[in-house]
Design brief:
Blueprint: E1 16-18, E2 22-26, E3 36-42, E4 47-53, E5 57-64, E6 66-71, E7 74-79, E8 83-86, E9 92-96, E10 102-109, H1 113-121, H2 125-128, H3 131-140, E11 143-145
Antiparallel strand pairs: 1-2, 2-3, 3-10, 4-9, 4-11, 5-8, 5-10, 6-7, 6-9
Length: 151
Amino acid sequence: MGSERHPVLVPPGEGRVFLGDLTCRVSSASTSGGYCAFEFVTQPGDGVPLHVHSREDEVYYILEGTFEIRCGDRFFTAAAGAMAVLPRTIPHAFRNAGQTPSRALTIFIPGGFDAFVQELAEMSPADAADETKRNAIRRKHGIQMLEESVV
């Protein structure tokens, strides 16, 4: 990746959609690897189980709804307008704590998380159903799942 920096504008509703309700709004390539940004929608009760990133810090900005976020030993309730910073190497999880879909913007610093998501999205349905194969991709990208249940 080059070090050239340039402005990026992503119009409303645009971006690359992965895995249903996960949209890459700003790619790592467009920021010379500095960061990437995703917008996602999480249904009530759904979320991501406890896991850890060895490479990226995450910044969450809650756009709609309410999320329960765990980072290390701390638990937060983050409503629309809240921001949460989750440092790399600290285990974290989140779930939609409300009764309606929740929406957030997440920035991964540095970039690279979009390559992980793309690799998951390109898996065949049979491979995607195989936790061992998904874990191999996670390890390749410095991500480790620690629990199966969300916050």
